[in-house]
Amino acid sequence: MNHPLARALRGAGINAVDVASRLGVDPKTVQRWMTGRQPYPRHRDALVKMTGWSPHDLWPEMSRPTDPATQADEVRIVYPHRSAVPADAWVRLLSRADHEIAILAYSALFLAENVAVTDLLREKARQGVRVRIALGDPAGRHVASRGDEERIGAGMSARIRTALVGFGPLAAESGVALGLHDTVLYNSICRSDDELLVSSHIYGRPGAHAPVLHLKGNRADGMVATYLASFERVWSVVKPAIGL
Fold first, then answer.
1. Are 111 and 212 in contact (CB under 8 A)?
2. What is 69-240's CATH number?
């Protein structure tokens, strides 16, 4: 038997009968483990302790979980709420874009009312950066639901219409696309190439009170990729913001 578990047990001077006695299983079960059958998690843990080998050394065929360290590499800063993000952080983020800017929100009114942001978006579009902005449909049912959650009712639709006044002129730029979506929005996203500021949506709490992650990464299986895929999913169902 050349399975890693068999080698580990031999190296530790432990035979199948010893293992069976310690774990309260049939020796034939241990024999099956030693030829490749994978034990239950509680038995795997016990075998790791007996042999001193790691789980993946004993069972190389096990799928490896995502390394938390590589995920943590994508997290630059965590803000406890959006109002804790420095006012110029949004401009600094967007100013670094060379290829792609994307904004996904219900209203993003705090960005639409920031003249430095709208001027920068216009300039980036003229430099050839693709700019896409997806806001909630003021007449959408999910916008109405979010307004009820935050106890502002039609105020959510009003905020979006106000944001459209700020973002609307950008739609005249050839590199800017402004659309409306009616989706359940779990996160708001502000993208600058492979950097994101992501605001979580919390039931019953306004956006300014939600935590914000500053992420940067280009791994195909990373956090940034997950959020970008979510944006694309929403973007696929937006309708043009015309006449609003």
1. no
2. 3.30.870.10
